[in-house]
Design brief:
By secondary structure, this protein is mainly alpha-helical. 78% of the residues lie in helices and 0% in strands. It has helices spanning 2-15, 21-24, 26-32, 37-60, 67-88, 92-107, 110-120, 126-155, 157-176, 196-199, 202-235, 244-268, 271-289, 297-312, 315-325, 331-359, 366-380, 383-389.
Length: 395
């Protein structure tokens, strides 16, 4: 069991190196390609639009075939998209097309990988295995900012994306080594994209809608944190040697620890209460975070690390909750809908942030950053309401 969990977590982390490659280098591309904040937001966010459009089909498919096959196909598409970005991206249109393709690839990796894990790991250790896999998304985020940031500084952005493509290819090889599972004999009735049974599952829907608010906040932060810190660093007369990508790397590492810690708290206490409290704290922090641009760079950097951890406390707990509330034979459809609405929010969040920045003055003032992140905080604070609506009478 341990080998299966480690293999899938490592393969997930390697594939994710390319996911945040553009956000990690957003300041570079904004200058090199003359992008507005809204255009940069489109490139950052369209990855998750590709994910959201593809994930219903690819994840629902795992109720019918071995999820390992979908996972392998996803890593292959990620390799193609990231390698293509290294070779062919030249501006807004080409970058958006290749990022969109990468999102389609990720749709075949993230939740199908979770389904591959659930199909191979059972018993009392399953909940912790799910939490570890979900938290490994932050490991991939950390690797993305670290590998891409360092490689771009030394070799240029083309090589940074090329290394991310090689990492996805390595994930494909690792997944191929997993033993297949037996063919399903209890395939669900109805069409592949029939989500009506999931929509009727009130308990699961509470977690799904809460996850939507969480994803809006999380991916807005991850898409814009480097640009935000670059702005604060540029305002400072003197600043520590920590680059924005280094701070983002540490933030992702803290986020992974916070996600695992939150998952453990959810096992010990009421899961909905743990998630709701986390959302209240992180959403409240978002209302103030952008105004950290008024403070010294090192204070803004520390605030980013702390805020990253607060956002992530409920991440694994929400996904685990949705998975545990899924009806038998509908796990794939449940996580498909979970990802569809969650990653739709991950698309709209970064895009909205860019539009708000342009509306509030172009991101050239601390005020504009404060307003932009406060807008995100308002969305995050809707999460506890969704969880409350999902509570069934017996709970």
């Amino acid at each position: 069991m341990r080998r299966i969990v480690l293999t899938l977590c490592a393969a997930e982390g390697l594939t994710l190196i390319g996911v945040f490659a553009f956000p990690a280098l957003m300041p570079t591309f904004r200058v090199a390609w003359g992008l507005s904040n809204a255009e940069a937001g489109w490139i950052a966010g369209i990855y998750f639009l590709g994910y959201a459009l593809a994930v219903p089909v690819l994840t629902s498919l795992t109720d019918r075939i071995d999820a390992k096959l979908v996972f392998m196909a996803g890593t292959a598409v990620c390799t193609l998209a990231t390698g293509g970005f290294a070779l062919a991206a030249q501006g807004l249109v080409s970058a958006m097309a290749l990022r969109f393709l990468g999102g389609v690839g990720l749709a075949g990796v993230y939740m199908p990988g979770l389904k591959a894990l659930v199909d191979r790991v059972s018993g009392p250790g399953q909940a912790r295995a799910i939490a570890l896999y979900t938290a490994s998304f932050s490991l991939g985020t950390m690797l993305s900012f670290m590998v891409v940031g360092e490689a771009a500084a030394r070799l240029g952005w083309h090589w940074a994306f090329a290394l991310a493509a090689i990492a996805s290819l390595a994930a494909l090889v690792m997944a191929a080594g997993l033993a297949p599972v037996a063919s399903r004999t209890d395939r669900p009735a109805g069409s592949l994209l029939d989500f009506r049974p999931v929509l009727r599952n009130r308990a699961a829907m509470g977690y799904i809608l809460g996850y939507t608010c969480h994803m809006w906040e999380l991916f807005t932060f991850r898409s814009w944190v480097v640009a935000f810190l670059a702005f604060v660093q540029g305002r400072a007369a003197s600043a520590p040697g920590w680059s924005p990508t280094s701070v983002a790397t540490v933030s992702a590492l803290v986020a992974m620890a916070a996600s695992l810690g939150g998952a453990d708290l959810a096992l010990r206490f009421d899961r909905r209460r743990v998630c709701s409290l986390s959302m209240l704290v992180s959403g409240g922090t978002a209302l103030l975070f952008g105004f950290a641009a008024l403070l010294p760079y090192w204070v803004a950097a520390v605030a980013a690390v702390v805020y990253s951890g607060l956002i992530q406390i409920d991440s694994a707990a929400l996904t685990t909750g949705a998975m545990m509330e899924a009806k038998e034979g509908r796990q794939g459809a449940t996580v498909a809908l979970h990802s569809l609405v969650g990653f739709s929010a991950a698309f709209f969040g970064p895009l909205t942030q860019g539009a708000v920045l342009d509306f509030a003055g172009g991101g050239g003032s601390a005020w504009s950053w404060g307003i932009a992140f406060a807008t995100t905080g308002i969305i995050a604070l809707l999460g506890p309401l969704a969880l409350r609506k999902g509570r069934v009478p017996s709970q």
